[in-house]
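pasting for the record
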Amino acid sequence: MADTPDLEAAGGRQEAELALLTAMYPGNLDWNGHRRELTYRTEEGGVLTLRLPDDYPEKSTPQLVMATGKNKTDLRDLARSRMAALRNHPDEETLDAIIQAFDELVKQRAQTSQETGRSVDQLSGKTTSKPAFKTVVVWLHHLLNTNKRKLALNPSINSGAVKGITKPGYPGVLVYSGNADAVEAHVAELRNQRWQAFQVRLDEPGQSPWNFAADSILEVESMSEVTKNIVGEINKQAFLKAIGVK
């Protein structure tokens, strides 16, 4: 894990954004103030390095220095395409969006590798199956907007197949579990909203969903209430670890 970034060489909005990212991705960031380079390490072994000009974000955008996947696979061209697709503009904080796009790129590459392995297994006569259920924990910088809170509580597709808990305020927290396809669709729908920060802290496939105190998606007021409404000590510990409490 990386050390806590030294933010003294950054200033103003840039320093505030780096401080927020440090809270969002504890242990995964390294800021080199002398070189003005931010390095992010994914849980899957990917490494992203961005150079921040002195006048970012007021007048310029981050510059890609390095992007590698698992086993140091060169992902610079793919990362540049993802960054271009974000349509980042000067005077706009974009680091979290870039990090999320890189995270998804590394995960997709890893999944492609796994699927290639499954194809080999199938040729040799072995069979595999996609887990029927999934649990996702999302960390938000905040959840205040009434429409977003309603959407978080009411999946538009196959709503009965998803259970969970939402906590509005600072930070916002979402916990969903149930049918894998339904959970993925609901999280994707939420991700497409405008967020200052939207980070998936846990994405866990399994043969059974998590259980909650309520047989629906429940909104609570505090982090302790989220934990209280998760049934099962193993699941509670997994949640606390995902949000960085344990």
